[in-house]
Write a structure and sequence with these properties.
- It is built from two helices and 17 strands.
- The protein is mainly beta.
- It has a single domain, classed as Jelly Rolls, CATH 2.60.120.200.
Length: 291
Amino acid sequence: MYKGFKKNAMRFILAGLTSLLVIFCSFFDAGAQPPPAPEGYQWVVNEKFSDEFDGTSLDTEKWFARSPYWVHGRPPATFRAYSVSVKDGTLQIKNSILKGDKKYNIAGGAVASKAKDAYFGYYEARMKASGISMSSTFWMKNKPEGNDCPREQLELDIVEAIGMQKRGQDMRNVMRSNTHTFHTDCDGNKLVKSSGGNCEISPAVNEAFHVYGCWWVDENTLKFYHNGVYQFTVHPNTYFRDKPFNRPMYMHMVTETYNWETPPTEDELNNDAINTTYYDWVRSYKLIPQK
């Protein structure tokens, strides 16, 4: 009897410790903050690129439900505003079957910021990826300046995730981040120069919420964080200029198909347990001198 009591007591204690650990991890993940500010500076919230998604509809003062910067997407998926909703304290992008279109047969989503002046600062999102072979992403980009040539666009991929890997690289157990410079010369020739980094994460991107963050320090330096912990630094490619990341951007939260990954099936898209990407919040900060 004593042995049985002791065994049950140990089970109770272990169960309690496990519960406390889960609560602690959830709190830590939910409460991720910017890294320490440099001496003489402090972080302040950048409201134009921050949202807790606590309402019942998308804040149209801040966001487009369908991006005007990238209207169609990559076949076989395209973007639809009806894929986007705000409920249960989250921004949700639900992927689904799209009928009656020869080029596109999947409806994804692309939420975009109305502001286009995200520049040096810290940007983070708490996201749980869908469990299908479509992307769940958090990134920034800009449009070319003017009509003169050469023309360039910059892109900062804070995270690109896929909750169901069918082929290609693992984006389920890895935080993958990238910087891209898209260059078009005066003859119309296009050249892309990229530089990125990655780190392993657990649980998988579709099994839990993760906080993905980036400190855009300057034109040459971007530091990436997972759940508030520093992971790696990326230096954008300097093929075109010494200080490549030198222009402000707009923000995107997107679900799409990739041309190197097998698209989801109709059964997968109809499965509400796996077909949705969730954003608990997005928070952005900029540095100002301390008073």
